[in-house]
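DM from R.C. (forwarded with permission)

"hey, sorry to bug you on a friday — could you get me a structure for this? deadline for the figure draft is monday and I only need the backbone to look sensible"
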Amino acid sequence: MTHPWKILPLLLLAMVLLPFHSIPEPGPDDTNKQIVAALTAGNAVALSDYFNAMVDLGISGNEDTYSKTQATQILKDFFTKNPVKSVKITRQGSSTDGSQFSIGEMQAGSGTFRIYYLLKKISGKFLIQQLQIQKAN
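My reply, with the result:
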Protein backbone atom coordinates (compact mmCIF):
# COMPACT_ATOMS: atom_id res chain seq x y z
CA MET A 1 0.00 0.00 0.00
CA THR A 2 1.27 3.48 -0.89
CA HIS A 3 1.90 5.71 2.03
CA PRO A 4 -0.28 8.89 1.99
CA TRP A 5 2.82 11.09 2.23
CA LYS A 6 4.03 9.77 -1.12
CA ILE A 7 0.95 10.94 -3.05
CA LEU A 8 0.78 14.32 -1.32
CA PRO A 9 3.21 16.00 -3.79
CA LEU A 10 1.09 14.73 -6.71
CA LEU A 11 -2.08 16.11 -5.16
CA LEU A 12 -0.44 19.48 -4.54
CA LEU A 13 0.82 19.60 -8.12
CA ALA A 14 -2.65 18.79 -9.44
CA MET A 15 -4.18 21.53 -7.29
CA VAL A 16 -1.69 24.07 -8.59
CA LEU A 17 -2.02 23.14 -12.28
CA LEU A 18 -5.79 22.68 -12.45
CA PRO A 19 -6.64 26.40 -12.33
CA PHE A 20 -4.35 26.94 -15.34
CA HIS A 21 -6.41 24.57 -17.43
CA SER A 22 -8.54 27.28 -18.99
CA ILE A 23 -11.85 27.10 -20.75
CA PRO A 24 -11.23 27.59 -24.46
CA GLU A 25 -12.08 30.98 -25.91
CA PRO A 26 -15.13 31.07 -28.19
CA GLY A 27 -14.12 30.42 -31.77
CA PRO A 28 -15.36 32.23 -34.86
CA ASP A 29 -18.31 29.83 -35.26
CA ASP A 30 -19.64 30.63 -31.78
CA THR A 31 -19.06 34.33 -32.33
CA ASN A 32 -20.80 34.22 -35.72
CA LYS A 33 -23.87 32.58 -34.18
CA GLN A 34 -24.08 35.31 -31.56
CA ILE A 35 -23.59 38.08 -34.13
CA VAL A 36 -26.30 36.67 -36.41
CA ALA A 37 -28.64 36.35 -33.41
CA ALA A 38 -28.01 40.00 -32.46
CA LEU A 39 -28.51 41.16 -36.07
CA THR A 40 -31.71 39.12 -36.40
CA ALA A 41 -33.04 40.63 -33.18
CA GLY A 42 -32.02 44.13 -34.32
CA ASN A 43 -30.17 44.42 -31.02
CA ALA A 44 -27.35 46.95 -31.39
CA VAL A 45 -26.28 46.60 -27.74
CA ALA A 46 -25.87 42.81 -28.01
CA LEU A 47 -24.04 43.26 -31.31
CA SER A 48 -21.69 45.82 -29.73
CA ASP A 49 -20.42 43.11 -27.36
CA TYR A 50 -18.49 41.87 -30.40
CA PHE A 51 -17.17 45.26 -31.57
CA ASN A 52 -13.51 46.12 -31.43
CA ALA A 53 -12.74 49.42 -29.64
CA MET A 54 -12.86 51.12 -33.06
CA VAL A 55 -15.13 49.80 -35.83
CA ASP A 56 -15.17 50.55 -39.56
CA LEU A 57 -18.91 51.00 -40.03
CA GLY A 58 -20.68 51.55 -43.33
CA ILE A 59 -24.44 51.93 -43.53
CA SER A 60 -26.10 52.81 -46.84
CA GLY A 61 -23.04 54.55 -48.24
CA ASN A 62 -22.01 56.44 -45.09
CA GLU A 63 -18.70 54.96 -44.05
CA ASP A 64 -16.33 55.95 -41.29
CA THR A 65 -14.42 54.62 -38.32
CA TYR A 66 -16.33 54.95 -35.06
CA SER A 67 -15.80 54.16 -31.42
CA LYS A 68 -17.73 51.21 -30.06
CA THR A 69 -20.21 53.61 -28.40
CA GLN A 70 -20.75 55.69 -31.54
CA ALA A 71 -21.20 52.61 -33.72
CA THR A 72 -23.75 51.21 -31.28
CA GLN A 73 -25.81 54.40 -31.43
CA ILE A 74 -25.71 54.50 -35.24
CA LEU A 75 -26.90 50.89 -35.38
CA LYS A 76 -29.68 51.59 -32.85
CA ASP A 77 -30.93 54.35 -35.15
CA PHE A 78 -30.70 52.07 -38.19
CA PHE A 79 -32.62 49.24 -36.48
CA THR A 80 -35.30 51.68 -35.27
CA LYS A 81 -35.88 52.89 -38.83
CA ASN A 82 -35.46 49.41 -40.35
CA PRO A 83 -36.89 46.67 -38.08
CA VAL A 84 -35.15 43.41 -38.94
CA LYS A 85 -37.28 40.57 -40.29
CA SER A 86 -34.57 38.04 -41.13
CA VAL A 87 -30.83 37.52 -41.59
CA LYS A 88 -29.25 34.86 -43.75
CA ILE A 89 -25.48 34.34 -44.04
CA THR A 90 -24.65 33.12 -47.54
CA ARG A 91 -20.87 33.00 -47.50
CA GLN A 92 -18.08 32.76 -44.93
CA GLY A 93 -14.34 32.53 -45.24
CA SER A 94 -11.00 33.38 -43.75
CA SER A 95 -7.76 35.04 -44.76
CA THR A 96 -4.17 34.02 -44.16
CA ASP A 97 -3.89 36.40 -41.19
CA GLY A 98 -6.70 34.54 -39.38
CA SER A 99 -9.41 37.10 -40.03
CA GLN A 100 -12.89 35.72 -40.68
CA PHE A 101 -15.54 37.27 -42.89
CA SER A 102 -19.24 36.71 -43.40
CA ILE A 103 -21.51 37.93 -46.19
CA GLY A 104 -25.27 37.72 -46.15
CA GLU A 105 -28.64 39.25 -46.64
CA MET A 106 -30.90 41.04 -44.20
CA GLN A 107 -34.60 41.73 -44.71
CA ALA A 108 -35.28 44.92 -42.78
CA GLY A 109 -37.83 47.69 -42.99
CA SER A 110 -39.18 47.70 -46.52
CA GLY A 111 -36.01 46.48 -48.17
CA THR A 112 -33.22 44.00 -48.53
CA PHE A 113 -29.72 44.83 -47.32
CA ARG A 114 -26.42 43.17 -48.08
CA ILE A 115 -24.40 42.63 -44.91
CA TYR A 116 -20.70 42.03 -44.53
CA TYR A 117 -18.60 41.83 -41.42
CA LEU A 118 -14.96 41.08 -40.70
CA LEU A 119 -13.78 39.46 -37.47
CA LYS A 120 -10.24 39.78 -36.19
CA LYS A 121 -8.79 37.91 -33.25
CA ILE A 122 -7.81 40.47 -30.63
CA SER A 123 -6.58 39.38 -27.19
CA GLY A 124 -7.82 35.87 -27.83
CA LYS A 125 -11.35 36.93 -28.80
CA PHE A 126 -12.91 37.37 -32.25
CA LEU A 127 -14.21 40.94 -32.60
CA ILE A 128 -15.91 42.87 -35.38
CA GLN A 129 -13.38 45.11 -37.09
CA GLN A 130 -15.63 46.08 -40.00
CA LEU A 131 -19.40 46.03 -40.55
CA GLN A 132 -21.17 46.99 -43.75
CA ILE A 133 -24.94 47.18 -44.26
CA GLN A 134 -25.80 48.29 -47.78
CA LYS A 135 -29.15 48.53 -49.56
CA ALA A 136 -29.38 45.74 -52.14
CA ASN A 137 -30.15 46.73 -55.72
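R.C.: lifesaver. The domain at 27-135 is CATH 3.10.450.50 (Nuclear Transport Factor 2; Chain: A,).
me: no worries. The helical segments are 4-17, 28-41, 44-48, 68-81.
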